Amino acid sequence: MLKRLRRLSLVALILSLYFGALPARAQLGNSGSIEGVVKDASGGVVAGAKVEISNPVSGFSREITTGSDGSFRVTNIPFNPYHLVVTATGFSPYTQDVDVRSTVPTTLQIAMKVGTEATSIMVEANGGDLVETESTFHTDVDQKIIDRLPLESASSSLTSLVTLVSPGVAADSNGNMHGLGDHAQTSFSIDGQKISDQTSKVFSNQLSPDAVQSMEVISGAPPAEFGDKTSLVIKVTTKSGLGITTPTGSVTASYGSFGTSNLGFNLAYGGAKWGNFIAASALQSGRFLDGPEFSVFHDKGNEENIFDRVDYQLSQKDTIHGNFQYTRSWFQTPNTFDNLNVVDFNGNNVGDTDQRSKIGTFNIAPTWTRLIGPSAVFTLGAYVRKDQYNYYPSNNPFADLGPINSETISQDRTLTNAGLRSDISYVKGIHNIKAGVTFEHTFLTENDRFGIIDPNLLPSTTDTLGNPCFDATTNIAVPGTPCATLLPIDLTRGGTQFGFHGHADVKEIALFVQDTITKGNWSFNLGIRGDLYRGLSSTSQAEPRLGIAYNIKPTSTVLRISYARTLETPFNENLVIATTGCNVDVIAALIPCVPANSPPGFRNEFHAGFQQAFGKYLVVDAEYLWKYTHNAYDFSVLGNTPITFPIDWHNSKIPGYAIRVSVPNFHGLTALVVMSSVAARYFPPQVGGLGVTVGQSGSVFRIDHDEKFNSTAHLQYQPFKRGPWLGFNWRYDSGLVAGAVPDFATALSFDGDQQAAIGLFCSGPGGQRIVATLTNPLSNNPASCGADPTGTGATRVKIPANGTENDDKNPPRIAPRNLLDIAVGHDNLFHGDRFRWSARVTVINITNKEALYNFLSTFSGTHFVSPRAVTGELGFHF
């Protein structure tokens, strides 16, 4: 069986290289098309008629003119319901609602009636146009929103975009987003290609939003075609040059706070049977990542990104398409004040900590589609995606020493996915059927080197009985203890660095079939998926997916319920060391080990919700979710190093709700409000991974991405169609769990920099408030806070009152924060026709709010939100 899988993976690679050398074409897994012929009452064709399609909720709109034969074809349309309007001189306007739900082309025959000429017609929606008879809760976003949304992360723009527009997503630092109570259980489907590995900036590089035409973010029960990481599924449709006979594009340049500059270029060009879209950009910033201090230093980085999409129609039935992306990023690991002028164990100043990373991401994904009659489409795709991640320590390894760093480490890691996917879509009558198979082969290679740079680490280490295992006066380690194992890599005592090399292959095969049955006001989503996973652990599972929706048309109300069984597979990042590290004496001595190998798990999830339109200007979409997972994944860290790896808990329970409120265009005003409350309760024991970091008491606990409530309100206003516009964000986060600060006494043990980061304070003698600073930390001293201080707390962390902390019911949390962002721009400064100049000013964190994403997180450490950042952009469009 394994030999057969290896042969299939080789075939995937060969096909990827073969198809990658060819031009390619449009209709992909995430988009459909509308085509047809416009005729008059006598059957004669109507040339030059204007065809407009729009979705008022997502903001998508497209306009095309019929040819000399009366035909039209609109391609690359995201799956959604649309309102179609046809206007022509001497004819009455024609309107029709069209539902695009498949890659099978939607074909229309339009008969115009002679009437009074309409010089213009308003494409307005009614309540029925605002709701969808769909059992899967999702959010649709078009580039009209994307282009004017102030994004809070320059280096992780795509995940920043998803966080702001999707309910149920908790914001974390460096582009990390926690979808519906899970860490990294997110999959992207980019033109049908699955990417389920992590895309936050500390792991990989992302697709640029410049290449995104539209997104559908699935927060509900995933359909059967999606597997692996499905807590949040993000379907991305990229831009295409197909049918664009006059070259269009833009050149933009921006400069702003922290020396952040960006240069971007995109071009779309094609013909009736071919098209090419290319986007390239270069970013440089003095604040590339979210730092552990509100002040910005040692945080430089740059990124170069190129994306190319080629479409080509070989015949009336056959088309090919190809995506190509390459991104390179280089960036410093931001320092704390404790990382400046580091003093080694001999008292020598060894300079500032200078740790850096470099990531190269390559992706190629060709696809062939073939029409099988008017009702079916066959798709065959291949892809190869590779992340090369390098982590570099300081030139002087002892400069890596810090209050939470006892080791110096370097890493060279690669993660390569090669895969084949094939499916067939069939639309007939009440049925919309899709069936397919996917094979993916993931190659993991991990090379790590690390050594101990803290002379106090061994003297503080104990044996299995809790006894000291090292005599610091004689420099002797007790044989057979962790100290004896670690002594050879203790650089402070003449040791050398330890090298770890690991490699693994992970193979996955999935088969699925699903059918959306639409009958009257009812919609039934029936599907089943089968997954076969063979990696460092193995499993197979059948996964039913069910959904029902009912449209109460008189009141514009849709009711829905759904269920999904899903397979939960381990994260691939640092999976080898997480799974095999316990078998390595040095690693087992450095961190507590669990005798397990990250076994796959399974999840049962239930959803119930409704969609309600109020007139034609407001729609509310709400969902309640409940997810139970056996073998639930999270991340931990190797010692005090930057190597993060998956760990596995016995089970988790994730209940919550998510709400989206949309206001379609109302006299130039559009609004999108998302809000959610999702709990993340995890239950010991730990059953996989290297070491226990939380939940050691054996009782249920809230993981560090649990958040009581968050919301984003995004408003856009453009009073005149050719005038200036304004975009505004108000983001509220109630705060993630901050397990490192269970009580005030623990906070007193932190150094001055850590206390200042959380804004620790107390009432000193005479009731005067005393605030911790970098050079004057608070202490358990009567001259400072006293042995039993009153009026204690922290401005950026909510510390439970003494004796009230409970890991489940009352955990410590990051303090709530409100962040305000604004963008003001004009898309056509000089009212040009063929050529246009644009300008915009964006301000992130208008009030310069000092707030934390997290504090001493076991996964990511400490990070502040961005200080106020002002950016100006100028663009030329043709």
Give an overview in words.
The radius of gyration is 28 Å and the shape is globular. The chain contains nine helices and 47 strands. The chain is mostly beta strands and 878 residues long. It is 7% helix and 50% strand. About 3% of the residues have low confidence. Strand 11 and strand 12 form a beta hairpin. It has a 22-stranded antiparallel beta barrel. A five-stranded mixed beta sheet has the order 8-13-14-11-12. The chain has a four-stranded antiparallel beta sheet with strand order 3-2-5-6, with no helix packed on it.
Would you spell out the secondary-structure blueprint of this structure?
Blueprint: H1 2-20, E1 31-39, E2 50-54, E3 61-65, E4 71-78, E5 80-87, E6 94-100, E7 106-111, H2 127-130, E8 138-142, H3 143-146, H4 157-165, E9 169-171, E10 177-179, E11 186-190, E12 193-195, E13 212-218, E14 232-238, E15 248-256, E16 260-270, E17 274-285, E18 301-313, E19 318-332, E20 356-372, E21 376-392, E22 407-428, E23 431-452, E24 470-471, E25 476-477, H5 482-486, E26 498-519, E27 522-534, E28 538-552, E29 557-568, H6 575-580, H7 585-590, E30 601-614, E31 618-637, E32 644-666, E33 669-678, E34 681-688, E35 701-702, E36 707-717, E37 725-733, H8 744-748, H9 752-758, E38 760-763, E39 769-771, E40 790-794, E41 797-798, E42 813-814, E43 817-826, E44 836-844, E45 852-857, E46 861-864, E47 869-877
Parallel strand pairs: 1-7, 11-14
Antiparallel strand pairs: 1-4, 2-3, 2-5, 5-6, 8-13, 9-10, 11-12, 13-14, 15-16, 15-47, 16-17, 17-18, 18-19, 19-20, 20-21, 21-22, 22-23, 23-26, 24-25, 26-27, 27-28, 28-29, 29-30, 30-31, 31-32, 32-33, 32-34, 33-36, 34-35, 36-37, 37-43, 38-39, 38-40, 41-42, 43-44, 44-47, 45-46
